[in-house]
Design goal:
There is one protein chain. By secondary structure, this protein is mostly helical. The chain folds into 2 domains: 63 residues, Orthogonal Bundle (Arc Repressor Mutant, subunit A), CATH 1.10.10.10; 76 residues. The protein contains 6 helices and 4 strands. Strands 1-2 form a two-stranded antiparallel sheet. It has a two-stranded antiparallel ribbon with strand order 3-4. Strand 3 and strand 4 form a beta hairpin. The protein is rod-shaped, with a radius of gyration of 22 Å.
Amino acid sequence: MANNELEGNTLSVYAFIVRADRPVGVREVTRGAELSSTSVAYYNLQKLENLGLIAKDSYGNYILKEKASIDGHVWVGKSLVPRLMFYSFFFIGAFVAELSMILLSLVIENFLVIEVRFLVLTGLTLVAMILFLKEGLELHRKLNSKITGEK
């Protein structure tokens, strides 16, 4: 439900509040989320409050109430990381292990016989690693441009 509402300025405001990890006022949100006016900040703060993601404290400042899930991303501390990055890390680990086996077979004679099928598998792992890493970085860049308001 809230996931569809978190885009553009609303996502910027929400990400700023998550990173701040303390109560923040409207003016601070305006500056921190690089919004054009306090009325834009207030509108988005109200939207987030109505979604149940933030709350207003007794001093009129806004605090994080809950971290929402964002499609294709995972919260790591105060940062949103594309899930594809985790997949790329898996393939990086597999590629390093496969490459280590190949290098060991070259250094230590008769230790391990590497067949052509293994080399093909290593090549496929390399391709998967590159694709997941490229797509994950692209998603991360797009999300950050949404958060900072860049085009």
